[in-house]
Design brief:
329 residues; 11% strand; PRTRC system protein F; PRTRC_protein-F
Length: 329
């Protein structure tokens, strides 16, 4: 952690202790205001956060200059205008990859909408919290490399593009056709949205209701009961918040890693896409291990709201972690 002896930092820390849930008794000894705040904040976070089996991230408290250093190579670095002397950084230093293909097959057999419901609820949960890489992202990566960025393209749509790149070798071309690649990277029911070619509109996939998930727990096969139980709990938890990110990120670098990655199958193609992704971010200089930075609030009302949002976010993340653990089991 990096600190600067400025009055606004000390004032913010005083307001945090005076208004927020941080407890002075969690700080038995300290050598600076910054150290006291760090001890108090992480003691609160430890009480609030569940233990994670699958999600991988941590928090870092940084001052404005440290955030500027992280943002300096980002394309939108000039847009960063600090609103607080201290920021909470969300860091992801590595990526856990989970092959959920086997369990997805069980879900697909139990109910035709259960796979799409699972992906829709995961997408909603990460929209309120932090990033989880889902199969549709791999399809997006592949389409950007080989299909001019059109992940909905047909074989006919991309044939000329592929011939320009690989020639007329049919065996080679077949390896890059949507009809071959799509089921490997992201089967249609694992996509988080639907695109209507007639209206040119994209809509998020609807999910089964909590009541429907409860029914599947009662009459579904044993292999999917736990997942339906966890999905029902996630559904009810998501209803307690509006569809917005509970971590109010002000600055977002290009994060190389996700808190977790879900893949439809373990294949060399997916490994290659991830390796290319990491290599690209490394060479561009924009890659970061930080997902984003949240300004610490300073007024009594905003401080209380911020910690309430974070507490709810931790609950959602805990339930999301249980869903992923059930899928990966």
């Amino acid at each position: 952690m990096r600190w600067r002896a400025e009055q606004d930092v000390c004032r913010l820390i005083s307001d945090q202790f005076g208004t927020g849930p941080i407890r002075a008794r969690d700080v038995p000894g300290f050598s600076s205001a910054g150290e006291a705040f760090a001890k108090g904040f992480f003691a609160w976070a430890k009480r609030e956060m569940p233990l994670f089996k699958c999600l991988n991230f941590n928090f870092v408290i940084q001052d404005v200059e440290a955030v500027r250093e992280q943002m300096q190579y980002q394309y939108d670095a000039r847009d960063f205008e600090p609103t607080s002397p201290l920021y909470l950084g969300i860091e992801m230093q590595e990526e856990n990859v989970f092959d959920i293909g086997e369990k997805v097959a069980h879900l697909r057999a139990a109910h035709p909408r259960l796979v799409s419901t699972t992906m829709a609820l995961i997408n909603r949960a990460m929209g309120r919290t932090i990033w989880v890489r889902t199969p549709d992202e791999f399809l997006g990566m592949f389409s950007s490399y080989y299909w001019d960025g059109d992940s909905r393209a047909s074989d006919e749509d991309v044939m000329e593009i592929l011939k320009d790149r690989f020639g007329d070798d049919e065996a080679e071309l077949e390896n890059y056709l949507p009809s071959v690649v799509r089921d490997e990277l992201c089967p249609s029911d694992m996509d988080v949205g639907r695109y209507n070619r007639k209206t040119h509109r994209f809509s998020l996939t609807p999910a089964l209701s909590a009541a429907s998930l409860r029914q599947l727990q009662e009459r579904g096969p044993r292999s999917v009961r736990r997942i339906c139980l966890e999905l029902e709990a996630l559904t009810l938890l998501l209803k307690t918040s509006r569809p917005r990110c509970l971590f109010d990120l002000q600055a977002r670098p290009e994060c190389a890693y996700a808190a977790a990655t879900l893949i439809a199958c373990d294949s060399p193609r997916i490994s290659e896409l991830l390796d290319d992704h990491y290599e690209h971010l490394s060479q561009s200089g924009e890659g970061s291990t930080f997902y984003g930075f949240i300004p610490f609030a300073s007024t009594p009302e905003s401080i209380r709201k911020q910690y309430a949002d974070w507490s709810l976010a931790f609950s959602i993340l805990g339930q999301l972690d249980r869903v992923i653990a059930a899928l990966a089991a």
